[in-house]
Design goal:
Helices cover 46% and strands 12% of the residues. By secondary structure, it is α+β, with helices and mostly antiparallel strands.
């Protein structure tokens, strides 16, 4: 059986495993978020082991159902599977494996069932042993890896300082996998029987006794691991027994490590502020992730400041023009090229574009009352003024025009220093669907908020938001006098385009006085006639 799990064979699986992860993540992007367990940690390993065994794609969901019946039903961990369910699953799986084994005897393929059948023909395995091996591989090959991925993410979210390091240093992922194996082992215990009497410090165990061996406890042995109860990706983890020991060492350990590494590398390292945007439960939801690596061409302009290196598949959507992020519009392309001219690389280009949008386009929240057409980057550029979403769209479009991947982030914010007229008209000081740009610079996603131009900040006694292309640029919680300014209260995720329908529905619910019937942003006349600069000046006694 080792022939099916040689280092060379497992290493050769990596491109396919990344392709499968890509499919999971692309599906998540279409739906707006990723449900960790059902969206990634379940389908990835079960599909891998099913493909290795030679199971047809249309039967993989059934294989997972059989696995659940075995693991959950036999353990007694949940009441959803009765003894009859377990027995039925065993019978169905036996019938299926018997049929596949017969097919492989007649026509072998490059899969594990064929390997087992060839061993059977050499009088090494009986038909019953072939079936036992398949059941073992099915359960061990997907349930444990599912747990490893979920447990590892849970540990990262509970230790934000470790998460921050992994997000910025991809080389730490293998160490993360091993520490996750030690810290919260995918399988906590297994039953064992003694063949002879065993003497333990706590007493003697007679021969033929049944034991439940909690080897996960050994992974927290203070004599083996210093400060064993802490989660530390810098730890020397040699000696952990998450994969067993000796002749019981897990046959698929290298496969599990590979699947977990891919599962962490593909979505997690691209998440913006995952600690703030993730909730862990049995169906933990991730924000929109990015997928595996493909080559993505520039749209609307040549990649003048970067090479066409490999980018995640989902990143292609963050380079392409769309209805509002019209990065192929001549005015957008010209603006981007003019302001990034002679910049040394994509980081400097992005920084120059940030300041050009921040200070070259006047912030005006009353432009939120414009028609959907006015949300286009080209329209905001032409008007010379825009609200937070409009300015974020401009920055994203300009970056895409230069081949810098860009997407849009949205959050509800409470502006404690909003003008009295704005508060009165909206009926609240909460700005629903505040927008910012999210730029991929030198391999990292960075937030950029170009809304408040420097002149407005001076009037409001705010510290202008600076941007260096390396760190997030988001609103300050206090002004220069220590008064509360901006409070982030809810995140709406990352998008490749403006979520017009969601914004309109939210605004109609929360701004009934400001919104009138019709398309997004068709609002009552007082909103359209507002002069935000004048309001700020009057409230602060500025002539």
């Amino acid at each position: 059986m080792n022939r099916g799990f040689t280092p060379r064979r497992i290493a050769a699986l990596e491109p396919r495993i990344r392709e499968l992860a890509s499919g999971c993540l692309d599906a998540a992007i279409r739906h707006g978020d990723l449900e960790l367990v059902s969206g990634l940690s379940v389908p990835l390993p079960v599909t891998v082991i099913a493909e290795m065994l030679g199971v047809e794609p249309e039967r993989r969901d059934q294989f997972k159902a059989w696995s659940d019946a075995f693991v959950i039903g036999l353990s007694g961990a949940a009441g959803q599977y009765s003894k009859d369910d377990v027995r039925r699953a065993a019978d169905e799986m036996a019938d299926y494996i018997e049929r596949i084994a017969a097919e492989r005897r007649a026509s072998p393929k490059d899969d594990l069932i064929s390997v087992l059948v060839r061993a059977e023909e050499g009088d090494t395995l009986t038909t019953g042993e072939v079936m036992s091996f398949v059941v073992l591989l099915l359960i061990a090959g997907n349930e444990t890896t599912t747990n490893l991925i979920g447990n590892g993410v849970k540990a990262l979210l509970a230790h934000p300082e470790q998460l921050a390091r992994v997000l910025t240093d991809r080389s730490l992922v293998p160490a993360l996998v091993d520490e996750a194996l030690r810290y919260d082992s995918p399988v906590q215990a297994l039953p064992r029987s003694t063949q002879s009497a065993v003497e333990l410090p706590s007493g003697n165990v007679p021969a033929n006794s049944m034991l439940l061996v909690f080897f996960a406890s050994a992974n927290h042995d203070e004599e083996q691991f210093r400060d064993a109860e802490s989660f530390d990706i810098d730890r020397e983890v040699s000696g952990h027994v998450a994969f067993g020991h000796g002749i019981h060492f897990c046959l698929g350990a290298s496969l599990a490590r590979l699947e977990a590494r891919v599962a962490f590398e593909e979505p997690l390292l691209a998440l913006p502020e995952p600690r703030a945007r993730c909730r862990f439960r049995s169906d933990a939801r991730f924000p929109r992730p990015q997928g595996p690596e493909v080559s993505a061409p520039a749209r609307g302009g040549e990649m003048s400041h970067r090479s066409q290196r490999a980018l995640p598949a989902a990143t292609a959507a963050f380079l392409a023009p769309n209805e509002h992020v019209d990065s192929d519009h001549p005015e957008v392309v010209a603006f981007a090229r003019d302001h990034a001219r002679s910049a040394a690389g994509e980081r400097e280009s992005a920084v120059r574009l940030y300041y050009a949008v921040r200070d070259g386009i006047r912030y005006d929240p009353y432009t939120a009352g414009s028609s959907p057409d006015a949300l286009r980057a080209s329209a905001t550029l032409r008007a010379g003024r825009g609200w937070c979403v409009g300015k974020a769209v401009v920055l994203a479009a300009c970056c895409r025009a230069l081949g810098i991947a860009a997407r849009l982030g949205f959050a509800d914010v409470r502006n404690h220093l909003s003008t009295a007229r704005m508060r009165d008209f909206m009926g609240t000081d909460v700005f629903y669907y505040h927008g910012y740009a999210h730029l991929r610079i030198e391999g990292n996603w960075v937030k950029a908020t170009p809304a408040f131009n420097v002149e407005l900040c001076e009037k409001m006694n705010l510290q202008p938001l600076e941007f260096d292309g390396r760190s997030d640029s988001i609103y300050h919680p206090f002004d220069r006098e220590g008064r509360r300014h901006m409070e982030y209260i809810r995140d709406h995720g990352i998008h490749d385009a403006v979520p017009v329908a969601a914004m309109e529905a939210t605004w109609r619910r929360h701004y009934p006085r400001a919104m009138s019937e019709g398309a997004l942003g068709r609002v009552s006349t007082p909103f359209e006639d507002g002069d935000f600069d004048r309001e700020v000046a009057l409230e602060r006694g500025i002539r």
